[in-house]
Write a structure and sequence with these properties.
The chain is of the alpha/beta class and about 120 residues long. About 60% of the residues lie in helices and about 15% in strands. The protein contains five helices and three strands.
């Protein structure tokens, strides 16, 4: 992360950008804090956040609502093509499964607000 921010800060032409592709909420918070510290505007186009569609969507939606730039990757192709990559992401992000309950609760609350 520090390397990317150094590159952004020291870029002579201002064209260096960074994408932080993570499903880890702590990592996202660290990047947001670093952006604030470095004075990088949310919509400057210098920092993007990336996640797979369907994984930690509440993080992406919260970032987007707050004005940060988000990239959602949508795996496409046959099951045979997509599953190896998705399986690796799930194994790498075991904590994602622990957060599923949190996401389910958030979705239930959102649905209740819209229905009732």
């Amino acid at each position: 992360m520090d390397y990317a921010f150094n590159q952004i800060r020291n870029s002579l032409n201002g064209k260096y950008i960074a994408m932080f592709a993570t499903h880890n909420e702590k990592s996202v918070k660290r990047v947001v804090a670093k952006m604030k510290k470095e004075g990088i505007e949310k919509k400057s186009g210098k920092v993007y956040f990336g996640q797979l569609m369907g994984m930690c969507d509440h993080v992406s939606y919260s970032l987007g609502k707050a004005g940060y730039l988000i990239h959602k990757s949508v795996p496409c192709g046959s099951i045979e093509d997509v599953m190896p990559n998705m399986s690796r992401r799930a194994i790498e992000n075991k904590s994602v499964f622990a957060r599923l309950d949190k996401e389910k609760k958030m979705l239930s609350q959102a649905l209740r607000k819209r229905i009732f």
